[in-house]
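Form 12-C: Joint structure prediction
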Amino acid sequence: MASKVIHAIYNDDDILMNAVKKVRAERHHIEEVYTPFPVHGLDKAMGLSDTRIAITAFLYGCLGLTVAITMMNFIMIEDWPQDIGGKPSFSYLENLPAFVPIMFELTVFFAAHLMVITFYLRSKMWPFKEAENPDKRTTDDHFLMEIGVHGNEAELKELLLDTGAIEVTVKEKNA
Amino acid sequence: MRYTFSNRLKIGSIILMVVGAICLVTGFVTAPSSVEEAKAKIAAAHDDHGGGHGEVVDHAVADTHGNSHAEDSHDAGHDAAHDEHVFHQMQNRPWSALYVAAFFFFMISLGVLAFYAIQRAAQAGWSPILFRIMEGITAYLAPGGIIVFVILVMSVLHINHLFTWADPEVVKHDALIQGKAGYLNPTFFIIRAAIFLAGWIAYRFYSRKLSLAQDQSDDNSNFKKNFRISAAFLVFYLVTESMMSWDWIMSFDPHWFSTLFGWYVFASMFVSGITTIALVTIYLKSKGLLPEVNNSHIHDLAKFMFGVSIFWTYLWFSQFMLIWYANIPEEAVYYISRIEHYKLPFFGMLVLNFIFPLLVLMNSDYKRVNWFVVMTGIIILFGHYMDVFNMVMPATVGENWHLGVPEIGGILFFAGLFIFIVFNALSKEDLMPKRNPLIEESRQFHY
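Section 2 - Result
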């Protein structure tokens, strides 16, 4: 991890995309890109790996389904199999249709909420969390690329200005 | 690029038709022609199984049809009525096999037509590249529709016993059908069928004409006109499709009714249609004829297959669960007869049409893999054949059902006819629309 970083600021997402491709082609490591909105294809251009959050959602859904089945099997069939309006509480399968709405909803509930919580945890987002914003303009209309400096400061600066950066500054990391 | 109907496929489809026709004819020839023959057949079948359970089966039959007047009469009368009943069911079997297959393949092209109209009315940017394929599949609409229509006319003319309400002898003793005779009478039934078919075929004809004219013209007036008639068609389609499902399927059980039946049949035909588009597209692409169709187009089609499969299941379950939960006898008989005698096809189709596509097509990567889509597609199509089978057979042949020679013959014959007509139509025009305003977007489509 470099102790110094370069911040290059752009004011157009197309220019940013080209800059990202160029910087990567020159084999510099992009530490982070800050954008005010999702830029389509940026993750591919940066070479980020795919998210696995859909897989977690599937597993959470399976968990929700299991919870629903276990819960209702215990309550309705095993613990107190009452005759309620003639519904067949002899086995889970016989009364299954009545449980399906709950099975469905709990599957969706678990999949959705646990996935969102996973997202918060993985992206380190919570209330009172201090914003990690290197430049306030990136929330409005500017794009910022952060690159580690490994003793090639002048050359890197030149490269970034060539790619159309409107502003290039060198900063101490965690300053 | 122009598709040429290869000789191999042409001969293959003709072989399918010939083999299918032979099987169907066998079905008609081997159907019993008299009550005595039917009795002999049943007895022979029971002997094959050791004859032990004959009595049990007979008893079940009497139970399910206990609503008939036979109960009041003495034993001999009851037996005679029962034999007559079984005889009709056995006679119905080749007719039902013919009807189920004819309707199934017709419903595929009608589903594609609805999908096509939706794509036009929604001005979807991804699909114009597939319009010629959809138009090719809907070429089956007119011949397939006419075949179904002919079977319907034969039914109301008493050449078969498919629709019990069409038999004046039955209606005479049946107050419930009498009450519905204002709607369910042969003349009105045939007039309705003619109107439905005329409307659908007319839309298909004009939309195809405008679609081809758009390629030759130098403005977009044909495209706009096509947009307008597609929107109008969808309104017409929604009403007529719903009524068609009451007429052509629900009236097999004239004592039973369900309000969401039209939607249910629609979902079935819609998913079968989309699946067929995907299969034909993948086939033509594998021949190198659709270089610009990329895996994002396949991905979108597979997404539709996935989504509509779940929509179908939602409707299937809603219909089943509402009736199961309330368990009102006049509604529940529909499911009782199916669960009692059609357990495997009835629940098996749920696995084929829901669980299988759900698990296989959930992954975004799998939706781009051709052989995954083809495999799932074939299973979905078979599942929806079974769906139509389950809707028709219990009312016409009851517990005397098999998936045997006449049924397979029906599938083979209509599959051959379908392939022949569809691929013949595909070979008539270029596979790529030339100057559809959205074609460039469709070419570049990437998801």
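Section 3 - Comments
The mean pLDDT of chain B is 90. Residues 7-36+90-433 of chain B form one domain.
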